[in-house]
Amino acid sequence: INAEYMGHFLSVYFFSNMAFGPGAAACVILGSTTLAKMYMTFGFRAKNDTTSVAFKNASKAQLNEAEYSPLFIAILLYLHTQHASAFVGSVVSAVSSVWYILARFLGLPAGLFAPAALGRYAGLLILAWEVYKTL
Fold first, then answer.
1. DSSP structural state of residue 82
2. What contacts 7, CB < 8 A, 6 or more positions away?
């Protein structure tokens, strides 16, 4: 197997509509939300650290993330059951969800997590269109 063929195969496989769609995006977001909850439990609550600046920032981020994740997961799983490719919406939703929570947990400035928040809005709008197309 030559390197050019492998590169083409990997790019087609990993970036095609079949390799990353609504089901995979739902799994990514489910994993992200689970890790966020574990971080809050073991990183702060287990240590009884509920007054630090880091806790307050992480708590706000996790609560915000907890509002979006169920919505994304429900929509993405619905699209998966309908065999919709929804590639763009899946990628935008998954990337922006993980980006947002990581940026907030790391305490990065708003300029680095605000694009992810906007990306979640874009992802919802794209997915809404994908749902409409299945009706």
1. T
2. none
**CA atoms of 94 and 78, how far apart (whole Å):** 15
Tokens 């694009």 sit at which residue? 115
Task: Give the amino acid at 115.
Answer: P
Q: DSSP letters along 4-70, please?
A: HHHHHHHHHHHHSTTTSSHHHHHHHHHHHHHHHHHHHHHHTGGGT--SSHHHHHHHHHHHHHHHHHH
- Report the pLDDT averaged over residues 87-99: 95
* Beta-carbon contacts of residue 71 (< 8 Å; ≥ 6 apart): 124
Helix-helix angle 110-134:87-105, to 10 degrees: 150
Q: What is the pLDDT of residues 3-61, one digit of tens each?
A: 565 555 555 555 554 568 999 999 999 999 999 999 999 999 899 998 998 999 899 99
